[in-house]
Amino acid sequence: MTESKLTQAQKRHEQADEELAALLEQGADAEQTTKARAKLSAAENALRKAKQDEGEQQKKLEDGQIKAAESLVDELSKEIGATMQRIIASVSTPDAPRIATGQAQAILKARSEAAQAAEVLSQAKDRLDHLEARHSELSQRWDNITKRRAQGDTHDDDTAQLVVIGADREGVERLIEKAQAEVQRADLDHARAAEALKSAERRWAGVTREVWRLAMQKVAAPMEAGIAKAADEIRAHPGHNGEQAKGYEPTDPSLRDHLHRTGWTPYLQHRAA
Predict the structure, then answer these.
(1) Burial class of residue 215, CB neighbours in 10 A (0-12, 13-18, 19+)
(2) What phi and psi, each to the nearest 5 degrees, are found at residue 160?
(3) Which of 104, 153, 205, 225 meets the CB 3.0–4.6 Å disulfide criterion with 148?
């Protein structure tokens, strides 16, 4: 899995710092420590540059999220407008309700952060797996040498080999401890991001649900006005003997049942008035 430039720069910086520390601990000569310090300084400069680049990339990402949020809102508005036009093609179509981009930005940001958290967790787990495999390899080499020596088969460089393997294994164990902590942090961050995404999804669902409701009410308004006018005309034209005509009834009997099922019965309210 490809690592980000910032992650690579951080690892190179950590590696350079550890190499210098190791040289200092080993009592290396001035030439070696000078080279190590130069390498660490270069790594620090590269890390600063990577952080700067990461900040600029984050700014581009945020700008892109704003544009994506505007696109998401525009897509929703167009869909609502098209539905309104289809429903009341014979009636003047009202404008679609205005939708603020704030919630759209929030859901896009939550999705992005959840994806990033998942990526970070995956990378942390991969690194831990790699380190644990490396530790197992070193332990196996240690065991092979000690078992061979126990059987009387010794080599001149066995002691030196065991020293190196032991030092490497201890170093890897320290790295494993750090990697385990990184996995725990990444796992916690991932859980938080996932929960934040669920909340954002619920809020966005509420926004879209309310926008659709408002839009459909705007669609219904001119139709309700037409129905009310038709009902008024019926009441305004009684029979020749003054007998009042029946109130408005839907021309399609299935409409009555449908309105009852949806709980929307404006014609009944009009008759009651």
Answers:
(1) buried
(2) -65, -40
(3) 153
